[in-house]
Amino acid sequence: MSSLEGTLELSKLPDVLQLVAQHRKTGILTVQGQQDIIAVSFLQGQIVAADALNQTVEEGLGQVLVAEGLMAAPDFARAASDYPASGQRLLDYLVERRLVARPELLRALRIQTARLLEQLLRWTQGEFKFYSGDEVSYEEGLTPIPVDELLYQAAQKNPTIAPGPRPVPASVAARPASPAAAFPPPAAPPPSAGLDETGGAPPDLRVVRREGAPVVPDLAEGERVGAFRKMKIEAQAAPSEQPLIPSLLASGFILLLAFAVLFRSEAALLPFPWQATEREALGEDLRTSLYLKVDQAAKTGYLLDGHFPASLADLVTAGLLGRADLRDPRGRPLRYEPGEESYTLQPLDGGKPVAGTETSEAVTGNFLLDPDILTVPAESAEHPLVLLD
Amino acid sequence: MFRKPARRHLTAALLLLATTAPAAAEEGGVSSPQVTGVEMTTPVRRTLKQIEEQWLQWIVQNSRKDSERVVDDLLATAKQLGMQRLPDLCVGAIARAHRAAQEGDAERAAWALAAADRFDPGRPAVAFAEASIKAHQGRYGVALAALLRGSWRIFGSQFERYFWLRSLLLWSLCLLLVTGALFIAIQMVSKGGILVQDLSSMFARRLPPPLATAATVGLLLFPLVLPSGLLWLPLFWSVLLWAYASTSERGVLLALWLVAGAAPVLITSQSREVAVRLSPPDLAMENLVEHRLYGGLFTDLGVLRSVLPESVAVKHFLADVHRSLNQWEQAHSLYEQVLEAEPKNLAAQMNIGAYAFLKGDFGTAIKHFKEVAAADATNGAALFNLSQAYSESYLFDESRDALAQARKIPRSQVDVWMRNLSQQRVVTPDDGLRRIPEIRRELMATYRAQAAASAGLDLFRRWLSLLVPVILVLLALSIHLARRPFGLSEKVAEPRRHRTRDRWRRVLVPGLTSADAGEGLHSFGSLLLLTGLLLLPLFGRLGYRIPWGYDPGSSIAWILAIPGILLFFGARLRWELSHDV
Question: Which long-range contacts (CB under 8 A, 24 or more apart) does B475-479 make?
């Protein structure tokens, strides 16, 4: 059950909802349609919340509150624009300012949820997946919506969305279709009018759970549905800088990291502060290998021309070195000073030679470059003949 | 006395020893080791001089035929010293070919490359140079084939392979660590909003909102003021983000902490070995084993003797070197010293017997060969040599018996030795040349003795990084458990979103969509692939600079990286478009 997923073309949504209800599952069913994604939260098989990615809570709730005559449209518009400054959620703001009573608000929320679900039930194309879990978030005090009740009311309005052959539960069938028990017809404009067609940035809907709140198994025992403790769906109208801060921090960090990799590779590999000696050793190994490469190239130049090349760039032109070899592993340029039979090499840091990194190489001892070592020792030569008068 | 080997840090330290070492070189008397550090007899010097002159002859050749003739002569001369390859001349010929190609002389470039391949067969640099020259001529297909051939040759060349693999290890660790850091950065982008919100809420209990936000940013950035701040920053973030991560993301974080802790240990142990492998003594040994005669060989051998003056393994090794150069007097002296230190060293004793044989002292030779054969009944070479010594002493019956005994010993190569009698009258074992691993260990010990003033502290410091993952796990768990009283939030994995607005963000920032969905492995895998492609051209820079002899550049890396990156983003865009609503 935890991996329930498929497409609406193959599985009808009412059947899926009934399956979840039948197994009294807790979790979130996400349905991705052509224009929106809707997440339906189930608590032990009953619907406790529904959210659409492209429709905000404010929009849907405002429409219901106005349509139900619980608030005047200008009042709601003013409240919707003022509440972010209070740092509160819209729901808490409305109740605290006594703009609407909490029971009324919960009823409106329930109606809004049901409308969203009715909208969902009209979808014929899309993919769904059920994420099973131990707990879901929803508004405290909201009366859960039984799936059978939802389907019954939806079928009353649109017979094509009825599930497969299944008897209507007596509790539902016996209930009169009064406005209080049934879901009122969708008020114009429909919820889809809230879709963000322009590609704007609707508030980031996030399902969050308060730490320390009891989880579902605790609630199942001895508590009625209406006495749920504090859990909520937050329409996270987060302050604008909060998503920005981590992105900025991460971007800055990535830039620093790139710099470290390019110019301090040994520091990237041996990063701990107590590894200075090892870092130094690794840096020296890397530098030594570079010096060895330069030495081979310079001596090849000597082998061909009888003198060391005037600059390292000549060795790059000759294909003996790469361009990267003109700098040490830390990216510092190398100072190369050729002599008649030797040369010195040293990295420069800010134009100044780096202490302790100088190397000097000579042709001495190399039998291909230093003919002196091949001279037959003088002691082996015969003494000159001296004629005495 | 020696050429300045400052380029090799090990040598710099080791030369201190050299100045105090007994001047064994002065014992020779035949020739002076002032310049090279190893005695060279006049015939050896003449042979080397001949090589130098023949090289000058090759330089002035203008046809393939003449070039091949001089190359034949050069290789034949080198063979007189027991050498088969001339790596310096190989690189010289490569440079000559490159120069000719630049001057538009394709024919000369071709035969110069052919000569290079004969001077040091199978060397990757020759193929790299061919690739460059062919590319210069516009023959890109041939160039690519040569480039691939050169890359393949790396695995056949011991020296290049060793450093290429060590560089690969450094690059791989760097790749893992960088990907890990990027993974944490992506986690921060994905889940940092809640983290910042929670931290701000926590600070807001005592501070006004703007200060709370500033305090949050300050807290998140404070590791940067620590030493090695760039390391602590992602580790600190990963500990904070642990609570918001899914199970798979926590698994990835745990693995990253382990890699971060273990990588330094791995690199440090490798670094010590590499330092030795880059030292002149090791270069000399490596080349000698592969019969490579390079210009500084004798100087580097002198450094070896100076560094480990008392080492019996080095004496044995150098004795074999002198013997292979036909410098029997120097070899004999060293074999005697080896036998004195290791009385059961049969290889040294056999070569002392061989020395006596070549000197015409057959009685002494018979004595040594007999002792070796008695000590090791399976030593066919000793019996063969004994038969030869008997034969030279006109003791033909004894010679026949010894030869018959040698033939009875399985795996003895009597027939081969008989065939080579014209070149080598007695068999001389090369056990000294096989003591390189032992010498390397001694060099490592010398290195350690100098590098670590305090062995205990050094050991503790080296392994300390392994404690880091343990501490991080404990910290993450502690923070996770301590969160409850503060009422921090927990993000539940969200289903993947598909909105046009985010499309380019999803395409261009790999791992972000997976991070939003809590798919840690998928997120890390996406980042690893892209980071690998981006770091590919840096392979040569991040690792050791290998003295190829001809720089291959990073052509192959770019050839792989650019199409790879395009394919990577192309595939992501295609996937996003096909799954977009």
Answer: B475/B239, B476/B238, B476/B239, B476/B242, B476/B243, B476/B253, B479/B239, B479/B240, B479/B242, B479/B243
Neighbours of A85 (CB within 10 A): 8
Q: Cβ of A281 and B185 within 8 Å? A: no
Measure CA of the first residue to CA of the last residue in chain A; give whole Å: 124
User: Quick one: average pLDDT of A129-133?
Assistant: 82
Nearest chain B residue (CA) to A381: B42
**Test mutation, B541, B550, B554, B555, chain A, max A CBs within 10 A:** B541
Q: Where is the domain boundary, A185, A220, A238?
A: A238
Span B93-125, pLDDT tens digits = 999 999 999 888 889 999 999 999 999 999 999
Q: Check whether residue A230 and residue A349 sit in a common domain.
A: no
User: In this structure, are A115 and A195 located in the same domain?
Assistant: yes
CB of B479 less than 8 A from some CB of A: no
Residue A230 with chain B: CB contacts under 8 Å: none
Report helix, strand or coil for A342.
strand
Q: Cα B497 to chain center, whole Å?
A: 48
The verdict on A225 and A330 lying in the same domain is no
Helix, strand counts (H, E) of chain A: 12, 12
pLDDT for the residue A216? 35
A344 phi, psi to nearest 5 deg? -120, 155
pLDDT at B378: 85
Contact B131, B109 (CB under 8 A): no
Q: What's the domain range around A86?
A: 5-238
Domain count, chain A: 2
Helix (H) or strand (E) holding A13: helix A13-22
Is A309 part of a structural domain of the chain? yes
CB contact under 8 A, A261 and B174: yes
A184 and A284 share a domain?
A: no
- Report the alpha-carbon distance of residue A92 to residue A86 in Å, rounded: 10
Give B489's pLDDT tier (boundaries 50, 70, 90): low
Same domain, A204 and A281: no
Amino acid at B481: L
Alpha carbon separation from A305 to A275, A298, A308, B129 (Å, rounded) = 44, 10, 8, 19
For residues A217 and A71, membership in a common domain is answered with: yes
Tens digits of per-residue pLDDT, B221-270? 988 888 888 888 899 999 988 888 888 899 999 999 999 888 888 888 88
A303 touches chain B (CB under 8 A): yes
For an interface test with B, which of A285, A299, A302, A370 has the most B Cβ atoms less than 10 Å from its Cβ? Answer: A285
pLDDT value of residue B152: 92
Three-state SS string over B288-300 comes to HHCCECCCCHHHH
- A305 and A224 assigned to the same domain: no
Q: Tell me whether residue A245 is in a domain.
A: no
CB < 8 Å to B464, chain A:
272, 274
**Alpha carbon distances (Å) from B334 to A74, B21, B164, B340:** 106, 16, 36, 10
Whether the Cβ atoms of residue A249 and residue B188 lie closer than 8 Å to each other: yes
In angstroms, rounded to a whole number, what is the distance separating the alpha carbons of residues B527 and A56? 33
The pLDDT, as a whole number, for residue B485 is 58
**Residues of B in Cβ contact (< 8 Å) with A39:** 495
- Confidence category of residue A97, pLDDT binned at 50, 70, 90: confident
Cβ–Cβ gap A296/B549 under 8 Å = yes
Inform me whether the C-beta atom of residue B96 falls under 8 Å from chain A C-beta atoms: yes
pLDDT in tens, B552-561: 888 888 888 9
* Domain membership flag for residue A254: no
Question: How do beta strands A352-353 and A208-210 pair?
Answer: unpaired
For tokens 């921060």, what's the residue?
A: B188
Whether A251 is covered by a domain: the verdict is no
CB atoms within 10 A of CB B526: 23
Retrieve residue B481's tokens.
């458990």
Same domain, yes or no: A346 and A234:
no
Question: Is residue B495's pLDDT more than 80?
Answer: no
